[in-house]
Design a protein that fits this description.
43% of the residues lie in helices and 7% in strands. Strands 4-3-5-6 form a four-stranded parallel beta sheet, sandwiched between helices. Helix 5 (104-110) packs across helix 6 (118-128). By secondary structure, it is α/β, with parallel strands linked by helices.
């Protein structure tokens, strides 16, 4: 198994518990087609019209060697491609221009950082407020973000430790892409506490309960362990409730959770 990527010679990485090795360079020639397709996807930077056939032409002609090169394309370059007319060239350039303001969360997704999907990107953007702050964050700071554990934190750190990735980010910034977001204000009432939700609640959905807990500084986990601070149980709670009882963990219903959130009852020490 090679220690370096055969295409760009970046160090090849292997995650714990995984067999495959992978290249962490977003602009690796062997990865670039798929990177561009993902970057332009509707749910990411939403560059409509940038399909596989067109991207392949851009790559074959050397017009795009990096994600950032999309933002230097000209109408004349596009018109020289097969099956690209003036109207479609103008429309594509408009789409590319509009994507500059897609926002920090979407850009984070577009960079292709392993394990950073839509939800994680939104949480990171809301917590740190800028790509610069995310890139400079320590493992401990990253793991304080809800739903970001050691695996995701390590992937973010690995991405920004790569010189080529940092150069790409710097170039995207110079090209005017929006790299900031409004930081979400979080209170600290439940800071350091981990909750597990199980069952169906009378008035709150799981997502609503989770948002309330995270807004108060708490963290929501999908599994019960000795590190769990509270289990919030509704109707038809299953094995998670049984395990909580087995471990002697505090169990709340929806009313008790809301009382905890509003300060009517005191949270246990973390």
């Amino acid at each position: 198994m090679p220690d370096r990527c055969p295409a760009c010679h970046t160090e090849a990485r292997q995650s714990d518990g995984e067999v495959d090795r992978y290249c962490v360079n977003t602009d690796c020639p062997a990865r670039l087609l798929q990177s561009l397709l993902y970057f332009s996807h509707r749910g990411v930077m939403n560059i409509d019209g940038l399909g596989e056939a067109l991207i392949q032409q851009l790559l074959d002609r050397g017009l795009v060697r990096s994600i950032a090169d999309l933002y230097t394309l000209t109408e004349d370059q596009l018109l020289a491609l097969e099956r690209v007319g003036k109207k479609s060239a103008e429309t594509l350039l408009e789409q590319i221009e509009r994507s500059r303001t897609a926002g920090l969360a979407r850009l984070l997704m577009g960079l292709g950082i392993r394990f950073v999907g839509e939800r994680t990107a939104e949480l990171l953007a809301g917590e740190f407020g800028s790509l610069e702050a995310i890139a400079a964050a320590s493992p401990e700071e990253l793991e304080r973000v809800p739903e970001v554990g050691p695996k995701v934190a390590a992937s973010v750190l690995e991405f920004f430790a790569n010189e080529r990735n940092r150069a790409l980010v710097d170039r995207l910034a110079a090209l005017g892409l929006k790299m900031t977001a409004e930081k979400k204000q979080r209170s600290a009432e439940l800071a350091g506490l981990t909750f597990v939700l199980t069952g169906t609640f009378p008035t709150l959905s799981r997502d609503e309960a989770k948002e309330k807990i995270e807004a108060a500084g708490g963290k929501v986990s999908g599994s019960v362990s000795k590190k769990t601070s509270y289990v919030v149980a509704g109707e038809e709670a299953g094995t998670k409730l049984a395990k909580a009882r087995e471990l002697g963990l505090p169990i709340l219903d929806e009313a008790a959770l809301l009382a905890l959130l509003t300060g009517q009852i005191q949270a246990a020490a973390s």
